[in-house]
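Pipeline run #58 for the internal structure catalog. This entry was flagged by the ingest filter as a single-chain record with no existing model, so it goes straight to prediction. Upstream metadata was stripped on purpose; only the residue string is passed forward. Reviewer on rotation: M.T. Logging verbosity set to normal.
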Amino acid sequence: MADTTLIALVLGVLEGLTEFIPVSSTGHILLAGHFLGFESAGKTFEVVIQLGAILAIVGVYLGKIVGTVAGLPSDPQARRFAASVILAFLPAVAIGVLAHETIKTVLFESPRLIATMLVIGGVILLIVDRLPLRPRHTEADRSAVRMALAIGFVQCLAMIPGVSRSGATIVGALLMGADKRSAAEFSFFLSIPTMAAAFSYDLWKNREVLDTGAVWEIAIGFAAATVTAVIVVKWLLGYVSRHGFALFGWWRIIVGGVALVALNAGLLTDR
């Protein structure tokens, strides 16, 4: 129990560090779990602890969220923003339910796929970060509804572990005319319904295989992810506004490259 508790704590901190930066938190958690020999019941740990990071977003943006909900009856802008987030969320619901078993039993079990997607995503992030884009949207809550729906479809790519949900939505938003700060912020808001739904659905699907040990590990990882994510979210917006996303592109390439070397050297098995 002590060993798995420590590993759960480490993975929770890793989740909080990586959930909202475009490096694929799930990819990092799965690769780290393979290296550490950590197995959770039904692979539920890796998904459920993400809700801890979502609580961090709710805490940081509580005023904005409450204001939007309160303004729904009378404020057209509040309704437009809520509609944008909901529309962006819907594609992931449909595809996530239809492909759930394949994602959990096939894609989550391939460290080579995860590492490869980390490298590919890193290269794409570096390219997009250097493009001479001209932002037309500078406020996350004023994104066009059509643009939000398109971002929602792009988000579905992140069901392949290693792609990164925040990475896919940020790159999609940048290419559609958002500036770096508003792209990151819209990704944050979209994460709330997306990850809450993934948490609920995965917990329900695996309710019969969860045991007392699994619940304890999830609680430890959940708490660590929440605290760490609050720190990261507050830091990230200022950083990307000044420096962009190149750091995270190189981060992905290095982590994915190291994992591929380890796989080819036999230090990490592909299953």
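catalog note: The chain has a mean pLDDT of 85.
catalog note: The chain has one domain: 2-264.
status: ready for reviewer M.T.
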